Amino acid sequence: MTEKEYLYLLLHAAGTGAVTAQRLYEHFGSYEHIWKAEKRELERSGLLSHGRLSGLLEARRREEELREDFAALEKRGLRFIAWWEEGYPGRLLPFRDRPAGLFVRGTLPAKDRFTAAIVGARSCTELGRQTAERLAFRLAEAGVQVISGLALGIDGAAHKGALEAGGKTFAVLGCGADRCYPRENYGLFKKMELQGGVLSEFVPGTSPLPMNFPMRNRIISGLSDAVILVEAREKSGSLITADLALEQGKEVFAVPGRITDPLSRGCNRLIQNGAAVCLGPEDVLEAFGIKFEKKTRADKKTEKRLAKNENMVYSFLDSRSGTLEEIMDACGLSVTETMECLLKLELMGMVQGNGDQYYCRKL
Question: Which runs of consecutive H residues, i.e. helices, occur in the chain?
Fold first, then answer.
């Protein structure tokens, strides 16, 4: 058996995460020694709690089964890459809490290309979803790799935008790389196998437990040159990713929002604490030293031809989304007048509704 196989076995020991695995390796000198060490020797090391020791001993009883699983990884479309191998992401190597190994479907981010993470709220607004999708599209179009966590909302929108631009996008999962979570993003999951990759530090079959997601966030930030936050509450997992990125010395951007919007408070607070403001893809590309060719908005000429009422409605939706009632109140229009304006704007491709009388400007 190789060191890589012994590492694979060790990662199946319950409670043995990246830091514990690294400490054990430094103490025993090899993963083979860790796996074969006597119980008393493991206890004397002082590195394993009672629960972790029990987890390791239990994993040993499954050795034959786990070795068979290791041999079958390729048939399941998975690769296992250990931290000392050439294919392991160099961006993660400087960190002590780096994953000891990664399970990968597809490919890993190229080391010689800029990479940006786009993260944010699961329960995002339509405007936030469009913003994430547009940012990812423009960045991918400029050759930037896009990373996120495949979650509903902002994450999924970022992956979608990058894929539509024909770029590379990568998802870091809080479960095994053989599972798609959430199932609603299965289409993205399959496309990324061909146009990027899906990766996880968790062994195949691992369920998407809540405690796994904060752990995966350090990989998202670690693999990125910059992290962009699009919509986040003051206490959210996305802010954990941003904080980790700051600790890792990465560039952090936040898309600002209204001070009265709970989903903008996390971003606004991050900006207040020193994060860079992201008003568009050009801000991120400039930080990477990439020239940005600004696309001319197709609706600029059309905007000039709008009737007075339509222009009022379109202007209201410039930096926010709103319900039919909110638009009526702000513009002083009747229900009929407002509906007529929104219908015309939708037909012109300038405004988008979500089917529940909630509208936003189409980016």
Answer: 3-10, 18-28, 31-36, 39-45, 50-60, 63-71, 126-141, 154-164, 186-194, 212-222, 237-247, 262-272, 281-288, 300-304, 308-316, 324-331, 335-347
Single pTM value for the model: 0.83
Please say whether the beta carbons of 158 and 135 come within 8 A: yes
Summarised one tens digit per residue, pLDDT across range 39-86 is: 999 999 999 999 999 999 999 999 999 999 999 999 999 999 999 999
**Nearest alpha carbon to residue 12 among 85, 88, 64:** 64
**Tens of pLDDT along 151-204?**
999 999 999 999 999 999 999 999 999 999 999 999 999 999 999 999 999 999
* CB 49 within 8 Å of CB 41: no
Q: What is the DSSP string of 173-186?
A: -SS-TTS-SSGGGH
